[in-house]
Specification:
- The complex is a heterodimer of chains A (313) and B (235).
- With 313 residues, chain A is an all-alpha fold.
- Chain A has one domain.
- In chain A, 71% of the residues lie in helices and 0% in strands.
- Chain A has helices at residues 5-22, 29-54, 62-85, 90-119, 125-143, 162-180, 186-193, 195-200, 205-231, 241-253, 259-275, 283-297.
- In chain A, helix 3 packs antiparallel against helix 4 and helix 4 (90-119) crosses helix 5.
- The longest helix of chain A has 30 residues, at 90-119.
- Chain A starts with a helix and ends in a 16-residue tail after the last helix.
- Chain B has 235 residues and is of the alpha/beta class.
- Chain B has one domain: Rossmann fold (3-Layer(aba) Sandwich), CATH 3.40.50.
- Helix content of chain B is 39%, strand content 26%.
- Chain B has helices at 40-47, 70-75, 93-100, 107-120, 122-126, 137-149, 167-184, 195-201, 219-224, 226-232; strands spanning 2-11, 14-24, 29-33, 55-60, 63-64, 78-81, 155-159, 188-192, 204-209, 212-218.
- The longest helix of chain B is centred in the C-terminal third of the chain and has 18 residues, at 167-184.
- Chain B is globular.
- The model of chain B has no long low-confidence stretch (mean pLDDT 92).
- The chains are: A mainly alpha (313), B alpha/beta (235).
- Chain A binds chain B through residues 183, 186-187, 189-190, 192-194, 196-204, 257, 307, 309-310, 312, and chain B through 48, 50, 69-71, 74-75, 79-82, 86-92, 94-95, 98-100, 102-103, 129, 131, 134, 144, 147-148, 151.
Chain lengths: 313, 235
């Protein structure tokens, strides 16, 4: 049996990621770093797109979930795994991916705890709660000596390669895409379009909102794990409110609820960060100005193709 | 068949319904008329579980459904087509109808009913693949009604189906509703500001004022009632 087109596309992307990854030694180290960063941004932006774009909620805590996944997977690979099995090749090919999934699962679990109470309400409560959540996570990490506190967590193995990053990005996009292109998945768009009408059709809108939030949190956690094993060092201040906003901007720039637009925006903004590096701390100002200009000129997002927004299935 | 008794609803400190009771008999069209803020929409929302009444009871086919969540109410066969049409703008016409059949498992029934809706409103068939947000007001209302039908209702509630729609389309939509009621015996609870039209198509009517039922009677009686005439029928 031939798998459907989307699955073939996923397999092809994974294969290409593996192939390029094999030659990553020849790529300029700086470029490689930017590319890996862009790939992680795709994971973050696509997963947030499910929550903020397609389901019409507003989460401001994606960096917090990223932090949960980052610290969880880093702790697993640095302290737990070597004790159990010592330094082996297994670490990179078995323990590392497992730690990514574990980080994602923990993040998803936290997502249930944060999302379940606030998503039962209609309105902007989620934004307020997730804003607080992001700060709480940061403060907890800063004061938790077991993970290095404010000094940060050092000595993380740098397992993150092109394969893992773009593999994860492909899986994220695939999961979000196939989740939405099913009879069940149209419910997400329905809830975003009109919650009252969606409930009148018999949809449990709370259930949908929590599903989107938890799936989104899971992939934010995975992105965190990738980030931890890319930098080799974690600091709580790296997961501040600014980071969450950065991801939100990617989703808005890409056009809320557009798969490809958000991917392009994630890559562009990551590259832009590098270009704007000379601005230093003024980067956020440039970001804000960009966002304001965009809201005035292209409120529908940068990459919208007129009218034919979505292929109907 | 369907009955609500003495329900009270408030939004925070503001009381919207002060004990509303009404009844819908098998196979009839019942209308609820009244001005802005009289509590018409709130009554429908209370029935479909979108707001919970503080007291009172809602009974459907002998079952007490007070306090049910919206998705449970829909499962029992109460369809609610909300005010302002509220179609899913970013889904196509076809997908909107499929969402209506969200709780239906029988795909041959869905296909048959989909055919019925397209026969009832041929315009929807022409615009099958179009995003619902691009339809005209009247077409969106047709879609909202069709979508409600796909939830396999045994009782249909419509909130202001004539709101903001071209008069010609209003006529067409109401003609279809009357046929639906006549041919299928589907009971309809119709909330309308357009009292003339509502009392013309319905069998029985209730007049709601500031959260209370102030008048009730057969639609013909209400139309001849001088109070109703001066307040709602413009003369």
């Amino acid at each position: 049996m031939v798998p459907p087109k989307s699955q073939r596309l996923l397999i092809a992307t994974l294969a290409i990621a593996a192939l390029i990854s094999a030659f990553s030694g020849r790529i300029d180290a700086y470029l490689l770093d930017v590319a890996l960063g862009a790939g992680i941004s795709i994971v973050l932006a696509s997963s947030l797109n499910l929550i903020n774009g397609f389901t019409g909620q507003f989460s401001l805590g994606h960096a917090g979930f990223m932090a949960v996944g980052a610290y969880a997977s880093a702790m697993l690979t640095t302290t737990l795994a070597p004790k159990l099995m010592g330094q082996t090749e297994l670490l990179q090919w078995v323990v590392f991916p497992l730690s990514l999934v574990a980080g994602g699962l923990l993040s998803a679990l936290v997502g249930v705890a944060v999302g379940a109470p606030s998503l039962r309400l209609k309105g902007d409560y989620l934004a307020i709660v997730t804003l607080g959540f992001g700060e709480i996570i940061k403060v907890i990490l800063q004061n938790l000596d077991a993970v290095g506190g404010a000094r940060g967590l050092t000595g993380i193995h740098t397992h993150t390669s092109l394969f893992w990053v773009f593999g994860s990005a492909a899986v994220t996009v695939y999961v979000v895409w196939s989740l939405l292109n099913s009879t069940f998945g149209r419910g997400f768009v329905a809830v975003a379009d009109d919650e009252v009408a969606a409930e009148a059709m018999g949809l449990n809108s709370t259930h949908y909102k929590i599903t989107a939030f938890v799936v989104g949190s899971f992939f934010a956690g995975v992105a965190g794990g990738l980030y931890a094993h890319l930098k080799g060092y974690l600091n709580p201040s790296g997961f501040s409110f600014d980071k969450s906003i950065e991801i939100v901007v990617m989703v808005i720039l890409g056009g809320m609820g557009r798969h490809s637009g958000v991917i392009v925006a994630a890559v562009l903004l990551t590259a832009l960060t590098e270009v704007l590096r000379s601005f230093g701390n003024y980067r956020m100002i440039v970001y804000s100005v960009l966002l304001i200009i965009l809201m005035l000129t292209r409120p529908q997002g940068l990459f919208i193709w007129p009218l034919k927004k979505r292929k109907s299935t | 068949m369907f009955e609500i008794e003495n329900i009270h609803v408030s939004y925070g400190a503001i009381r919207a319904l002060h004990g509303v009771s009404l009844k819908v008999d098998e196979g009839s069209i019942v209308t609820l008329i009244g001005g802005n803020g009289a509590g018409k929409t709130t009554t429908l929302r209370a029935i479909s579980g979108m707001v919970q009444p503080i007291s009172g009871s809602i009974r459907f086919n002998g079952r007490d459904i007070t306090g049910y969540a919206p998705h449970q109410v829909v499962k029992l066969g109460l369809a609610h087509s909300p005010e302002g049409r509220m179609v899913f703008a970013n889904l196509t016409v076809l997908e909107n109808l499929q969402m209506g059949a969200y709780l239906q498992r029988d795909s041959s029934w869905i296909a048959k009913e989909m055919g019925f809706v397209f026969h009832m409103f041929p315009r929807l068939k022409e615009r099958e693949k179009q995003l619902a947000g691009t339809l005209s007001g009247g077409e969106q209302q047709m879609l909202a009604i069709g979508r409600a039908l796909l939830s396999r209702p045994r009782f249909l509630m419509l909130d202001e189906p004539s709101l903001g729609i071209a008069p010609l389309l209003i006529k067409e939509i109401f003609a279809r509703l009357v046929e639906l009621n006549r041919d299928r015996g589907l009971p309809i609870l119709l909330v309308e500001q357009n009292a003339n039209l509502a009392l013309e198509v319905s069998h029985y009517g209730y007049v709601l004022e500031t959260g209370r039922v102030t008048l009730a009677g057969t639609s013909a009686d209400l139309r001849n009632n001088p109070q109703v005439q001066s307040a709602y029928l413009g003369g």
